[in-house]
Specification:
Layout (H helix, E strand, L loop, with lengths): L9 H16 L3 H11 L3 H12 L9 E2 L4 E2 L4 E2 L12 H21 L5 H14 L19 H14 L5
Antiparallel strand pairs: 1-2, 2-3
Helix pairs in contact: 1-3, 1-6, 2-3, 2-4, 3-6, 4-5, 5-6
Catalytic activity: Hydrolysis of (1->4)-beta-linkages between N-acetylmuramic acid and N-acetyl-D-glucosamine residues in a peptidoglycan and between N-acetyl-D-glucosamine residues in chitodextrins
GO biological process, one term: peptidoglycan catabolic process
Enzyme class: hydrolase
């Protein structure tokens, strides 16, 4: 869900949306941290993607969103991946986090001249719109949902980290 849908913009808007999702997110905090440790991924980033993709489950119908194409808290697209586990399970979070990591590694290979932080942010954008959509650092969010996916997720992650979603 984009911040534009709530008539908000920028980092403060992203963080306000994360705050709105916190009560629902707390239900999954233990799993998020467990998967983060196992996959060596910052739990705040996992929480931020959950917040962005499903508002911590609030917008899902029987675990599905995105017109029936996205599955689970992190909205794995069934057109490109075969979802595993229940929509709110450790298996789901592990699979989705592995997809995120794969995208980050693909961006690292595609843009070796980018800093690790730029590659990571590119991987977040690619999680939403695919590696081929990320054509430059300046415009990496162009073509993502709301044209703000990477920036929004990073802002939400900063907020979730301040709430204890960390390794």
């Amino acid at each position: 869900m984009t911040t534009k849908q709530d008539d908000l913009t920028g980092v403060e808007a992203s963080q306000k949306l994360a705050e709105n999702d916190l009560a629902r997110m707390e239900k999954y905090k233990r799993l998020i941290i467990k998967v983060g440790k196992a996959k060596k991924m910052e739990p705040a980033v996992i929480a931020a993607i959950i917040s962005r993709e499903s508002r911590a489950g609030a917008v899902l119908k029987d675990g599905w969103g995105d017109h029936g194409n996205g599955f689970g808290l992190m909205q794995i697209d069934k057109r490109y991946h075969t979802p595993v586990g229940a929509w709110d399970s450790e298996k789901h979070l592990t699979q989705a986090t592995a997809i995120l990591i794969d995208n980050c590694q693909a961006l690292k290979a595609k843009y070796p001249q980018w800093s690790p932080e730029q590659q990571f942010k590119g991987g977040i954008s690619a999680y939403n719109a695919g590696v081929n959509n990320v054509r430059s650092y300046e415009y990496m969010d162009l073509g993502t949902t709301g044209d703000d996916y990477g920036n929004d997720v990073v802002a939400r992650a900063q907020w979730f980290k301040s709430k204890g979603y960390c390794l």
